[in-house]
Amino acid sequence: xxxxxxxxxxxxxxxxxxxxxxxxxxxxxxxxxxxxxxxxxxxxxxxxxxxxxxxxxxxxxxxxxxxxxxxxxxxxxxxxxxxxxxxxxxxxxxxxxxxxxxxxxxxxxxxxxxxxxxxxxxxxxxxxxxxxxxxxxxxxxxxxxxxxxxxxxxxxxxxxxxxxxxxxxxxxxxxxxxxxxxxxxxxxxxxxxxxxxxxxxxxxxxxxxxxxxxxxxxxxxxxxxxxxxxxxxxxxxxxxxxxxxxxxxxxxxxxxxxxxxxxxxxxxxxx
Amino acid sequence: xxxxxxxxxxxxxxxxxxxxxxxxxxxxxxxxxxxxxxxxxxxxxxxxxxxxxxxxxxxxxxxxxxxxxxxxxxxxxxxxxxxxxxxxxxxxxxxxxxxxxxxxxxxxxxxxxxxxxxxxxxxxxxxxxxxxxxxxxxxxxxxxxxxxxxxxxxxxxxxxxxxxxxxxxxxxxxxxxxxxxxxxxxxxxxxxxxxxxxxxxxxxxxxxxxxxxxxxxxxxxxxxxxxxxxxxxxxxxxxxxxxxxxxxxxxxxxxxxxxxxxxxxxxxxx
Lengths: 271, 270
Ligand SMILES: Nc1ncnc2c1ncn2[C@@H]1O[C@H](COP(=O)(O)OP(=O)(O)OP(=O)(O)O)[C@@H](O)[C@H]1O
Ligand SMILES: [Mg+2]
Hints:
The structure holds two protein chains of two kinds. By secondary structure, chain A is mainly alpha-helical. Chain A has helices at residues 14-23, 27-46, 56-68, 71-103, 105-120, 123-134, 138-162, 166-174, 179-216, 221-231, 235-264, 266-269. The longest helix of chain A has 38 residues, at 179-216. Chain B contains nine helices and eleven strands. In chain B, the strands form two sheets. A seven-stranded mixed β-sheet of chain B has the order 1-11-10-4-9-8-7, with helices on both faces. A four-stranded antiparallel β-sheet of chain B has the order 3-2-5-6, covered by helices on one side. The complex binds adenosine-5'-triphosphate and magnesium ion.
């Protein structure tokens, strides 16, 4: 069973905070709380408190329809492009920058303020600025993903390296390990749990970024599905699209955790 | 020897030199950032094959002195020589046992025990053979494939000890190796250490808070005064440790020596 417990001290972004809370609880409780949530949704939909709010079952029917007629798949085909490109770039730059900042004071001084500012800035407000500079194409959407995902990944990688127990570093030194051995045999493996926690949060932020971009820049992919269905008042379909992206993000993040455990954490494999 | 244990206590002047010194500490001062003088004018020799304890109140610089000997810290003034050669950093003649074990949680017992050899570039099968021998020697055979989180504190420290023994250093530097271990385990561990000493013929330097532990284990006890850490006195308990361990712990002379040291240290605590 996946246990998505996040290490203490991981810095979440706005979206990832919610994912984080979902993670730590056992499967049964997550199922129970989901069931409760859906039941309340269904009841709330039936009370008609808002004419635009569909019931849970209506939403699921709409979801099924969009899956069956393929519109959902083609939407995800479009959405995945900026998301995947943006995440790959964020991972590459975020992890390397984070690790370097953790290892070297000079890099820390130059780079850390940039990421801290990026992390604190309200990204939704900066998206119009990106559009102004890079137009409404793929570049802007990729940038939106990067701006949300990269700071979380970089800052957590940095903190992960800084939190490596000093006695482990002393140990490698006292047995005459080289700096290279120290980095690759001690620091990176010791930092990896917190680094991966940051990467999971970064991926969650990336989803936010791509949806924001598709809503605010030009409606494509899943953003188009949401905007279009709203404009023709097919609210069940609109909610179904929103539901699908949330579910997709949760599944992607959990899968990532599985991969991490099976590839990098031998001591947790059997447990 | 006809007595179950004999015990003499002799006190020498703080500077003691013998030709058999493995480690020579000469005029070591250590001043930390913020003008904290941790050590002042330490002159000390550690003799081959002896077990020396560094004993003193918290914050007196025991860890600092041990790390300077290990080459992990540079003294502000003075120097340390090992086998006659001055120390510039960590070396193969010295191995460290850490207070918090410093085991890699992602590595098995065997890999942890072999890690010193791994860093030296010893081939996998050879280093695992050697590590397996020492894992066995510290009483952990059967646990080679376990991970540190599956072991008790005492067992984890045995892995740390196996790792230090495996590199075949002349000197083992141990920083409060038993402080994170419960009392029963600690006693068993102390008894095993005495047995190990006879097999391994190494020089041990042990930092400890415990007067009993120091008297029970060591050939020589170096008492440090509180900050700034200076040599206070050197006590040489002469105990025959081949007998029943419990007999030693009840020996009146052993107990008297503990009282003696305690009355010397008491002044610092009050
Ligand atoms: N990196 C450091 N920077 C500044 N001061 C330090 C540093 N490390 C230790 N000190 C100070 O130096 C003194 C000696 O520290 P040290 O850790 O050697 O003491 P110790 O005898 O090992 O204490 P304990 O019994 O608590 O382990 C202490 O007062 C401590 O506060
Ligand atoms: Mg200490």
